[in-house]
Amino acid sequence: MLSFKFFLALLFLVVLAVTSLFVGVSDVSLATLWSGDRTAMLVLFESRIPRLLALIFAGAGMAVSGTIMQMLARNRFVEPSTAGTVEWASLGMLFILLLAPGLPVYVRMLVSTGFALAGTAIFLLVLRKIPLRSPLMVPLIGIMLGGVVDAGTTFFAYRYDMLQSLASWTTGDFSAVLRGRYELLWVSLFLTLLAYVAADRFTVIGMGEEFATNLGLNYRRVTAFGLVIISVVTACVVVTVGMVPFVGLIVPNIVSMVTGDSLRKSLPWVALCGSGLVLACDIVGRVVIAPFEIPVGTVLGAVGSAFFLYLVLRRQAGVA
Questions:
Q1: DSSP state letter for 208
Q2: Is there a contact between 155 and 98 (Cβ–Cβ < 8 Å)?
Q3: Cα(257)–Cα(245) distance, rounded to whole angstroms?
Q4: Cα(279)–Cα(15) distance, integer angstroms
Q5: Residue 317 has pLDDT above 70, yes or no
Q6: What is the pTM of this model?
Q7: For 266, what's the count of Cα atoms within 13 Å in the CB-facing half-sphere?
C-alpha cells in the first residue's frame, strides 16, 4: 500500500514538473515545440529544464538536510534556516567574494561549506552547554546565532558596497538558473542519495549518544558525517540559488506524522515531498503576479512561517 501511495506522490511530482516546464513569460508550449520554434526550443533546454532540475535537487537536498539536522539536534523545530547554517554559508560566500571574487564556483562552494560546517558545529556545541527546558529553545538559539551572523554579514556587505549583491543571491530566486549555472546541485543530489545509505545510522543517532554508543555506533563519526552532508548541501544551494528556507522544517514534520521516525522509510518521502514543495512554490510565484515573479524563498518564507507557528501551537495544545 505504501508503494502505491509513493507511486501516486511520484506521479503528482511529474505533473508539477511538466507544469513547471510550460509556465513562464516565454511562449513554450506543445504547439510551439511541435512546430519547431527555435526560440521555444532554446528557452526549454537552456532555461526551463535546468531550472526544473535545480528546483528538484534543491528541494530534495534541503528537506533531507533538515531531517538529518533534526536527528542530530533531537528536535523537530530545527533545520538549516533555523540553526544558523544558511547564514554561515552566506557569510562564507561574502568572504570569498570580498577576498578573491575571481575564483571558480566550486571554490566558493568549498569555502561556503567550511563556514556552514563551522556554524552548525557551533550551534550543536551551544546546545550541549545550555540546559534546555523547552524544545522551543533550540530553534530560538539557532535563530539568535543566525541573526548575529547575518548582522555581521550585512555590515561587511554595507561596508564594501555589496548589499545589492548580497540581497540578489540570498533570496532563493531560481529565475536566473541557466544551463551551466546549476550543475553544482548535482553534488547535492549525490549527498542526498548518500544520506539514504546511512539512514539507519542517523535513526540511531536520533535516540541519543548513550544509546548509539551502547549499540556499538561511533557517535562522533556519524555526527561529523551528518554535519558534512548538511553543510555541503546548504552551501551548494546558497551558492547556486540563494536561501531556500523552511523546506527542512515543513517536510520532515509532515512525513514523520505518516511514516514515523525511521529514516530508511521516510527519506524517500522526504526527498520527494521536498522537491514537490519547492516546485509548487515556484509555480505559484510565477503565476500570482505574472508576467513578474515572486522568488521561491519569499513564498516558502510565508508558508514556512505559518507552518512553524502551527507546530508551536500544536505542541502547546498537546502540553495543555
A1: -
A2: no
A3: 21
A4: 10
A5: no
A6: 0.88
A7: 24
